[in-house]
Design brief:
By secondary structure, the protein is an alpha+beta fold. It has five domains: 90 residues, Ubiquitin-like (UB roll); 103 residues, Alpha-Beta Plaits, CATH 3.30.70.20; 57 residues, ADC-like domains (N-terminal domain of TfIIb, Single Sheet); 79 residues, no CATH class; 40 residues, no CATH class. The strands form six sheets. A five-stranded mixed beta sheet has the order 2-1-5-3-4, with helices on both faces. Strands 10-11-12 form a three-stranded antiparallel beta sheet. Strands 13-15-14 form a three-stranded antiparallel beta sheet, with no helix packed on it. Helix 10 links the parallel strand 16 and strand 17. The longest helix has 19 residues. The protein is elongated and about 90 Å long. Bound molecules: iron/sulfur cluster (3 copies) and FE2/S2 (inorganic) cluster. One iron/sulfur cluster binds next to helix 4 and helix 5.
């Protein structure tokens, strides 16, 4: 059923059960919020969304007040605006004044509201909290409780989306403070380091530790991509600065996952720039044609990998001048098992040749293939076809069944 109300002298229709905030949003009327997030249960904690409603005493929180048929709402009444300003002043009265160096600068919901309502940072000699900055050894989540505005979005994101219930509030009044578990370290309170709480924090109180000092919103380019870790196919934005990924941020319009990410998608991106990363195929010297091996090493098209097979560091190769039949460099000799960094055509030819030879000699049942949850459905489908039709075996399984 639809209800009809008036907001800021504008007739508004909304489905029954909507809050005043939702009804206003449908009509394109913006009401400021801090503790509200559309993915989370509303708790009416911050009182930024207060509005005046005809017949109601004082101002009401739009995020928790149900819209009713015939209601008349003023979102910008003097009382509502004054109330928001006072709320912001009270928040700032116990908030650091370091937007200049804060990671959240430029994407801080508090900063935007303070700007919109032109509230000055209050100088006063009363108490301000001085919590230890980044006191938690969690390798991924940075915490600055001095910037926490006690909105509870992290608490609800962790409980309602991630189902971990790590965060809660301890104490009362001015001493109210965000704690993990029973005031423990996050990992001891069953945190799985998904970073959901960071994503939902409206200010710089929770941040991605790996990204500290590497680039704020205005300094990065966001590139939408699909996670490479599993077949769920979560989308997120790579935050790129000077051609380096400095952060991963969730994207509300990601079709599969919305703002939800796991620890791998959120924080497992450092492999991209890791010097040990394999970017070209490694083929053991014994599988390569001798002449091609010599020629390609000589002209530098291929490279041999030494005990760096273990250390994974690359050595530059030179032909031994005195013995043309051996390939040496100053540090080691190529053995049949030495890895050669080749090119994809060569590596795939080696694999195809060995598949063909093995099938001819022993039949398709000599193979057993394992599909991966890291691949897409389409890739696994092709893998299945390849196994049954090309290799002629039904010996195929999937890691998810193990
Ligand atoms: S959290 Fe927001 S308001 Fe606070 S210092 Fe950072 S940018 Fe400024
Ligand atoms: S990182 Fe994830 S599991 Fe840990 S506290 Fe934040 S939301 Fe909860
Ligand atoms: S850490 Fe952030 S999300 Fe959590 S209560 Fe504080 S301000 Fe809100
Ligand atoms: S947004 Fe409504 S009380 Fe915080």
């Amino acid at each position: 059923m639809t209800i009809n109300l008036v907001i800021n002298n504008q007739p508004v229709s909304a489905p029954e059960g909507s809050t005043v905030l939702e009804a206003a949003k449908r009509a394109g009327i913006e009401i400021p919020t801090l503790c509200h997030h559309p993915d989370l249960t509303d708790i009416g904690a911050c009182r930024m969304c207060v509005v005046s409603i005809d017949g109601a005493r004082g101002v009401q929180t739009a995020c928790t007040t149900p819209a009713r048929d015939g209601m008349v709402v003023d979102t910008m009444s003097d009382e509502a605006v004054t109330s928001r300003k006072v709320t912001l002043e009270l928040i700032l009265a116990d908030h650091p004044n370091d937007c200049m160096t804060c990671e959240a600068d430029g994407q801080c919901e508090l900063q935007d509201l303070v700007y919109d309502y032109q509230v000055a940072w209050p100088e006063h000699s009363g108490r301000r909290h001085h919590y230890e900055i980044d006191p938690d050894p969690n390798p991924f989540i940075f915490i600055d409780r001095n910037k926490c505005i006690l909105c509870g979005r992290c608490v609800r994101a962790c409980a309602e989306i991630q189902n971990r219930d790590v965060w809660t509030f301890a104490n009362r009044g001015f001493d109210t403070v965000l704690v993990a578990g029973a005031d423990q370290f996050m990992l001891d309170a069953d945190c799985e380091s998904c970073g959901q709480c960071v994503t939902y924090c409206p200010v710089g109180a929770l941040w991605d530790k790996m990204s500290m000092g590497k680039g704020r919103l205005s300094q990065v380019e966001k590139v939408r991509t699909t996670c490479s870790y599993c077949g769920v196919g979560c989308n997120f934005d790579l935050n790129v600065r000077n051609n380096e990924i400095v952060r991963v941020t969730a994207a509300a319009d990601a079709p599969v996952n919305g703002l939800s990410l796991c620890v791998k998608g959120h924080y497992g991106y450092d492999y991209v720039h890791h010097p040990d990363r394999l970017t070209r195929p490694l083929v053991r010297a014994k599988w390569l044609d001798d002449a091609a091996l010599h020629e390609n090493l000589e002209r530098g098209a291929w490279e041999a990998v030494s005990e760096a097979e273990k250390r994974r560091s690359m050595l530059t190769w030179q032909r031994h001048h005195s013995d043309q039949s051996e390939i040496r460099n100053s540090k080691f000799e190529i053995s049949p098992d030495t890895f050669i960094r080749t090119d994809w055509d060569t590596a795939l030819d080696v694999v195809a040749h060995k598949f063909t030879k093995t099938k001819k000699q022993y039949g398709g049942d000599a193979f057993a293939l394992m599909a991966s949850a890291k691949c897409t459905n389409e890739e696994n489908y092709i893998f299945n076809k390849f196994t049954r039709q090309m290799l002629a075996t039904h010996s195929i399984d999937h890691c998810a069944r193990l």
